[in-house]
Amino acid sequence: MQKNMEExxxxxxxxxKRVDExxxxxxxxxxxxxxxxxxxxxxxxxxxxxxxSQKGMRVGLLDVDIHGPNVPKMLGLENVHLTGSEQNIExxxxxxxxxVVSTAFLxxxxxxxxxxxxxxxxxxxxxxxxxxxxxxxxxxxxxxxPGTGDEPLSVxxxxxxxxxxxxxxxxxxxxxxxxxxxxNFVKQLNVPLTGIIxxxxxxxxxxxxxxxxxxxxxxxxxxxxxxKIPFLGSIPIEPGIVEASDEGKxxxxxxxxxxxxxRFNEIVDKIIGNG
Length: 275
What we know:
single chain, 9 helices
C-alpha cells in the first residue's frame, strides 16, 4: 500500500512538472467561467478564441466542461477524436492558428454521458495540461463549466500563473447573484480578474434596429463598477449567434456587420490590450 502511494505521488509530481513545462510556452492563460449555466459562456469562449486566432495570435481552446462540453458542436468538430502517444496528445487544429481540445473528444458518441467523480476530473484535466502538445501559444482559452466546482478549481491549482479570469453574466439579478460567487472564488485563489462580460444584453431587432431590453440591461456594468472590476463590454442577443452555433460556426466568422460583432471585437481588443 505504501509503495503504491509513493508511486502515485511520484507520478503526480512528474505530471505537474510537465504541466509547468507546457504552460511555460504559453504567454496568456485565460479562464472563462460563469456563476450559472445558460449565460452563453461557451459562446463567448469559442468566439474569443476564434477572434484572437484571426488576429494572427496562436491560440489554444481547452474545453474542461466534462459533463456538458459544447465547444465541439459550436466549431463543427463533433465525432472528432484525439490522436497521439501516451504523453504527447495532439490537439485538433482548426485553421492555421487555432488548436482545440475537449473532453467530448474522449467519448465514442455525443450522447454518451461522462460519469466521473471529482478525483477523475482532476486526473483528466491534469493530463490535458501535462500531455497535450500545445506548443508555443499567445493565448490558451479555458472554457470551464458553470459554478465553482472541481473543474475551475483544478485548473487554478494546476496552472500556477493563470493570467486572468473572464466572468460571463446576463443582466438579470439571479445571474448576478451567482456571478458574485464566481468573483469571490477567483479572488480566493489569487487569480487576476480580467473583467466581466454582460451577455444577452438587450435584443436588437433585425428589422427596425430598435433595442429591446428582454433581460434588463446594465447589471454587469453596475456590478463591475461597484466591485472595482474591469467591465469588458456587453453583447446583445441576435438570432445569428444561435444560428451560427447550431451550424458549427463561430458567429464572428460571418462577414455580416452586426452590433454583436462590433461589440465583441471591442471586447477582444481590450483583452489583447491587457495581455
